[in-house]
Amino acid sequence: MRRSLCVLSSILALVATATAVTVTVSSTASHPIPTTLWGLMFESGDGGLYGELLQNRAFQLVTPGTTGALAGWQAVNGATVSVIKESTPVSSALPNALHLTIPSGKTGPTGFGNVGYNSGLKVTAGSTYTASFYYRFPTSSSFSGSVTVGLQTAGGQALGSTTATISGSQTSWQQVTVTFQATTTPSSTSNLFTVTLDGAAASGQNINFAMLSLFPPTFKNRANGMRQDIAQALADIAPASFRFPGGNNLEGNTVSTRWQWNTTVGPLTSRPGRQGDWGYVNTDGLGLLEYLNWCEDLNMEPLMAVWSGYSLGGTSVAQDQLGPYIQQAIDQINFVVGDPTKSAAAALRSSLGHPAPFKLNYVEIGNEDFAAASTYPYRWTAFVNALQAQFPNIQFMATTYVNNPVLSPTPQVYDVHVYQSPSWFVANAFQYDDMARNGQKYFEGEYAVISTNDADVWSSTGRLVYPIMQGSASEAAFMLGLERNSDIVFAACYAPLIGNVNNNQWTPNLLGFDAGAVYKSTSYYVQKLFGNNRGDQYIPSTLPTRNGTLHWGVVKNTAANQLIIKIANTASSTQSLTFNLPFSVASSGTAQILTGGASTSNTPQNPNAIVPTTSTISTGQTDPLLLLPQASQPPPSHRPLPHLLLVALKAFTVNAAGPGTRDRPLVPVVQPATSRIHITVNAFPLE
Question: Does this UniProt record's set of keywords contain Signal (predicted)?
């Protein structure tokens, strides 16, 4: 068995002198840990997790003829471009098109281009790009020629392209799909995707284009898939559950703009998009099926929400008018788990390439319905009674405050959200210890340190742009409380998950990104350490002191034969811990260390300010194992001090007849603890 120690510390000035703590670890588990415990929450992916590179690719929800309708698009070499309402649209869902006119007298490549989302288009030499578009000539023409599809820098340097033939006789919509390889990696993401024709050969031609698209290689090569670097960073967390599709983005500002599953599945031309709830249009290219595929790709348990009859603008659907919305929720669940021979929604799933049902054990009724607590009781009752009758094996989660208002039937799970300061997270690390064990469970569906302002975390004063080490360590202390109480806390998700560093509506986020890179925060590394060091059994130990500065927990990973010890130090001074373990351990292992100043963040300018390092450690039966720097070493300003630490040791069984046998299942030692691990946890370095 391997022993792993995860030490996390912050700068909360709660003690002034060093302390010594002895922790006695039990030889038996108190409860199993849910496999769903550490997960992800996500709700809006255009320009980020969703791999599509083109902004405003289908002219969804724009006003034809306006400058705003051309967001992301521009003319190349003097061509005339505008967005029109098509008389014969490519689909009823996409009524608009880009109208291109090649003026007379032009020579050379002439057409239009797209600048991508916000910070541009990343181009990587050797990568294969897949481009597609629909085109038609509004009036039949004798023209027949090549269209060049490719990438170029803002200055016009070619980065890779290919050609396709189009015909002026094509007056109905025709899709063109091409692939090409980038030949150069430019130094900037200020690049342009272009569709051009020879100006002289195409002089005077008018052509309409619809549903244009450009994808780089995607995560696991999924068609219509995820951006590789963001998806891989999330996969590296090893998340076990996934909450979707929201969040606020589920609700809509109005009833008509709510997220609707049926408008997010099928061909991209059948998805009209919607005004998202974070200030921009959602293409819905990342729809219900893509979310479910993502769950399978990362082996995550889906935690799916259905719309509950309330929109962010304050409208609650009347009790006697809920029927159509309940039916839509039934259809949504049937799309996920239904029998294709009995459900039209399930048959649609099957026709889209997934005849087998997806996994689905949890469904959330709405999002943050404490905002409409006066109407949630009748909405909850109507939805749950109808859904439970159809899907008796699914657990339904409520989204009001716990037991306020009282709901019927009694919720099996409550979704709890909290955005607070570092001190709040430390002070509330024991909040679930006092919850009744009455069969009710809890989902910490959104949580994060967002401010250092204890008086008002929503004020601009103290609001964080990026997670800081102090906040991340405080989150870790809170997470240890969730893990200790995982007999009733079945899942937890940091939120928000990702944000564009050049254009965001909320800070901080777990991951920052722009067109060219992903920026992993200090909180990201906390999530990764917890996600990659799971236990399936919780091992009791001496409880930390409430309102104290040290937090710890012990879990067992049976399959890997590991005992994992995690520690959070929220003190401003050095602290020492001794763990008395009722097991023998091997003499060496590895330590993963994360260290940095309390207010230090990983930023685009310094993305690796705080990253984990790995070293080898050794231990003995009674000799102390000093894991952090001694006071005799250089002062803090000249050396790193670990705030996150993971130590792995291989253990072996012990019997009375002789020495232990390695690599066999761990068994309790009958006599008093035979192993002692001593850890000194230092304070944050002065800044």
Answer: yes
Q: Which residue type is seen at 153? A: T
Reported pTM: 0.90
- The whole-angstrom separation of Cα 208 and Cα 141 is 13
Tokens describing residue 454? 């204890």
Q: Are residues 210 and 228 in the same domain?
A: no
Tell me, rounded to whole angstroms, the distance of Cα 166 from its chain centroid. 41
Q: What token pair was written down for 152?
A: 């170029």
Identify residue 366 by its one-letter amino acid code: G
Q: Residue holding tokens 């039934």?
A: 330
**Cis preceding linkage at 467, omega within 30:** no
Q: What is the mean pLDDT of residues 129-138?
A: 99
Residue 672 scores a pLDDT above 80: no
Contacts of 623 (CB under 8 A, 6+ apart): none
Q: Please, are residues 676 and 581 in contact by the beta-carbon 8 Å criterion?
A: yes
- The C-alpha torsion from 585 through 587 and 588 to 592, rounded to 10°, is 50
Smallest CA-to-CA distance from 241 within 468, 470, 413, 91 is with 413
Domain boundary among 502, 531, 560: 531
Cα–Cα distance for residue pair 157/22, rounded to 1 Å: 66
Q: What is the pLDDT of residues 358-391, one digit of tens each?
A: 999 999 999 999 999 999 999 999 999 999 999 9
Give the CA dihedral 655, 657, 658, 662, nearest 10 degrees. Answer: -40
The enclosing domain of 149 has a CATH number of: 2.60.120.260
511 and 545 inside one domain = no
- Angle separating helix axes 522-531 and 469-484, nearest 10 degrees: 30
User: Which token pair is 583?
Assistant: 């097991």
Query: For residue 135, which of 205, 69, 47, 79 has the smallest C-alpha distance?
Result: 205
Residue 662 burial (CB count, 10 A)? 12
Alpha helices in 268-361 (DSSP H): 288-298, 323-337, 344-351
SS3 577: strand
In this structure, the answer to whether residues 331 and 479 fall within a common structural domain is: yes
DSSP for residue 218: B
Who has greater pLDDT, 23 or 20?
A: 23
* Cβ–Cβ under 8 Å, residues 684 and 641: yes
Give yes or no: residues 515 and 551 share one domain: no
State whether residue 431 is helix, strand or coil: helix
Q: In terms of DSSP bridges, do strands 511-513 and 498-500 run parallel, antiparallel, or are they unpaired?
A: parallel
Higher pLDDT, 161 or 7: 161
- Residue 630 pLDDT grade (very low, low, confident, very high; cuts 50, 70, 90): very low
Alpha helices in 113-268 (DSSP H): 228-235, 248-251
Phi/psi at 557 (5° precision): -105, 100
**pLDDT-based confidence at 644, cuts 50/70/90?**
very low
Are 421 and 453 in contact, with CB atoms under 8 Å apart? yes
CATH of the domain at 504: 3.20.20.80
Sign of the CA dihedral with 337 first, then 338, 341, and 345 last: negative
The angle subtended at Cα 675 by Cα 671 and Cα 681, nearest 5°, is 140
Spatial contact of 468 and 507, defined as CB atoms under 8 Å apart: no
Cβ pair 481, 434 in contact under 8 A: no
Boundary residue ending a domain (217, 240, 272): 217
Find the helix or strand (DSSP H, E) in which 167 lies.
strand 158-167
399-408, 465-474, 655-664: the lowest-pLDDT one:
655-664
Does residue 409 have a cis bond before it (omega within 30 degrees)? yes
Residue 57 lies in a domain: no
Helices 288-298 and 323-337 cross at an angle (nearest 10°) of 40
